[in-house]
Structure formats: C-alpha cells, structure tokens
Amino acid sequence: MNAPLRLLAMSRVPAAAACVLAALVLAVTVVGEAVPPQVSWLHRNSTSTVVGGGEYGCADGDPDATRSAVYGTSGWDEAQIDNATAVYLVAAERGLGDQGAFIGLIAAYEESRLYNYANFDVDESLEYDHDRIGHDDDGVGIFQQPPNSGWGSVEDLMDPGYAAGEFYDRLVAVDGWESMAPTEAARAVQVSDSPDAYPRWEAYAEAAVGHFTDHIRCVPVGDEWAWTRPVADGDFWGGFRTADRPGHDGVDIGAADAGKGDEILAASAGVVARVRCDAQLGEQDYSCDVDGSAEVSGCGWYVDVEHPDDAVTRYCHMMRQPLVAVGDVVMPGEVLGYLGSSGNSGAPHLHFETHVGIAPATSENAVSPVEFMAERGVSIE
Predict the structure, then answer these.
(1) Banded model confidence at residue 224, pLDDT cuts 50, 70, 90
(2) Which pLDDT value is given to residue 199?
(3) I need a surface site. Which of 38, 84, 131, 144 has the fewest CB within 10 A?
(4) Torsion angle (degrees, nearest 10) of CA 31, 35, 40, 44
(5) How far apart are CA 99 and CA 116, in angstroms?
(6) Nearest-CA neighbor of 380 among 321, 331, 315, 296?
(7) Is residue 367 helix, strand or coil?
C-alpha cells in the first residue's frame, strides 16, 4: 500500500476500525468497454453502508497501467479485470479498504472466476450485458446469486457493481468480519458449505488488491471533509481578473504581518497533481529559491491539487520547494509549503487559483476563487 493511503487510514479511522483503509469509486464500466485514459473523478454511492471513516473519491491516472499490472500477476482477461475493479472499488467506496476488497474478490473468483454470467435457465439474464452463459441452478452475475435470494432483481444482479454492493451489505452484517480469516468471511456471506474452495484464490486476490491500491489515488469526500482558507490568517490583497489585471487568474493573499513563512494549507482533501518551479527572467530559467520580482515571470514554486468534485486548486509563489510530491493524498488544512515571493512577485504572498472541469488547470477553466470558496462556505476576502 502506498504511504499516503496508509497514513490516511491510520489517522482518520477510529481505533476499533483501524484496519479500514481509504479507496473508492472508479465508476463501473460496461464489461469489455475500455476505461477512458484520463484522470477523472467519478461517482460515489451516497447510500452505501460505511464502516469506519466515511466515503471516498478516487482517480486512476493511468488505467492501462493498472490493467497491465493486474494482468501481469493474474493472467485475467479484460472482462475479469473490469469485474475485479468493480468489486475492489465498491469496497473502497464504502470505507472497507483492502480487507473488504480482498474478501469480495475471493468470493467472486470462486463463484464465477470473475465473469458476469447470464443463465440459460433465467431467460431475463440474457437480456443484459454478460461475459458468459452458464446453467448453475438459477444463479446469475459475478456472485452467482439467484433472483429469489433477496439480493435484487435479475437486472440488478447482472450489474457487477450492484452485486458487489449487495455482497458488502451482507459482509458488514457478519459480526466480527474484520477479524475473521478472509476466506471464512467470504463463506459466511455466500453461505457456502465448501471450506476448501476459497483459500486457493487468496494469492490472486491479494496481488490484485495490491495493484489497485498502488495505482488508484483516493481521498475522503463529504461534508465532514470541509474546505478551509489556504492561509489561515492571511489578508486579501487582490482580486480575480480585475480591470487593471484582466489576466489575473487567481487572487492574492498576503501574510497578516506582510512577511514570509506562513503556512500554505490545502483548501480541501485531494491528490497532488503538480509540483513545479515556474520562473523565467527573459528567456532564461530563474531560481525559485530566491525572491522574484516584477521582471521575473511565472508562478514560482507552486502546487496543483485535484479534488473529487472536478476542481483543481493552485498555490503559487512558495518560498522554497513544497513539502508534498505528485501523487500525495492531502487533507483539508494540510501544510503544502510556506508563503514566499518566488516567481512573478513583488512581495511575499500566495497567489491562489481555483479551476472547475476536467484537469489540468488552465486559464480557460479558471473561476473566481472568492465565489468558488463562498459556494463551499468559506470566505477568503
């Protein structure tokens, strides 16, 4: 597991649920359909049963690399990897973490080898997207549940994401599931009388969970993860695209004492998407580790953070290299760096931008930070 997610899990989940880890929701794709190759923040299930620390939003920056990694240790085909992704991400969405995903994958692999099965004996199942057709009693889908099982309609059961949700509803109802052997927890949900069936798939499931965790970056979402001022006690210096600066795509916030070194804070939970020194004097690169000036162009040391609601925040003119790296998960109020005057800056301040839409942040998708933050209950003026 990557260090940011491990830290997130240990610091934000109650001790009784310390095994709960972060991760969530890459929208379930139709089996066999390619996942779009760009980072995109996707849906979350607001009605899900959550254990531990709440709901999460995730992004996969390189789905092809994720597929390749999973294939390399499993040999699973595209349909199996899609269905495994659905199982993993529903567990993550609900805050069940690696343990929950591991249990779900073991169960689905034993029941269907991770194929979404229609059934010759359940005519309606043939109407929905499926990978294969079987005739094991009247079980359908990746968990091979019959329509009279109480898990949902035939249409529901033929949706891998929905079926995984039903599995996890029942898993969290199993007393002490977190401390049970994963194979026993899977058997308890599936009401299986075959104790030797599940253990043989543990290595496959463990490897797949490891790859998903390594490739997918996740942050908590919801009202409990509020937005906050990027400089706690900063003074508002200048506005967004004013008459005298129509190309000013952000706002300027100075330290209360007009000095350097105040903490620059992540405005909300997100994933660090860019850390860069951007400074030029004429046609030559200029150091970001010294004060800039009106003659120097660029943002200086800056950080971009992508948030689950298709927003990006940018933090410019840091006094030295930021404290975070690309791929880090940051929490609301986490220190990104320190207020300075690198790049195009005449005095120490934070140039703060907000962008809405598909990343990356550009001038075209910049919006007023004052209005953006006000919509999230925070005044920065």
Answers:
(1) low
(2) 83
(3) 38
(4) 10
(5) 23
(6) 315
(7) strand
The domain locations on the chain are: 3-221, 235-375
- pLDDT on residue 189: 94
Q: Is the pTM of this model over 0.70?
A: no
* Token pair recorded at residue 267: 């405005």
Torsion angle, CA of 355/359/362/367, rounded to 10 degrees?
-10
The CA distance from 316 to 33, in Å, is 39
Torsion of the alpha carbons at 286, 291, 293 and 298, rounded to the nearest 10:
50
Q: How far apart are CA 123 and CA 159, in angstroms?
A: 16
The string of DSSP letters for 190-229 reads HT---TTTSGGGHHHHHHHHHHHHHHEEEEEESTTS----
Angle of the 63-74 helix axis to the 202-215 helix axis, nearest 10: 160
Homologous superfamily assigned to 235-375? Glucose Permease (Domain IIA) (2.70.70.10)
Left if phi > 0, otherwise alpha if psi is -120 to 50, otherwise beta: which for 201? alpha
Tokens of 148: 């009279």
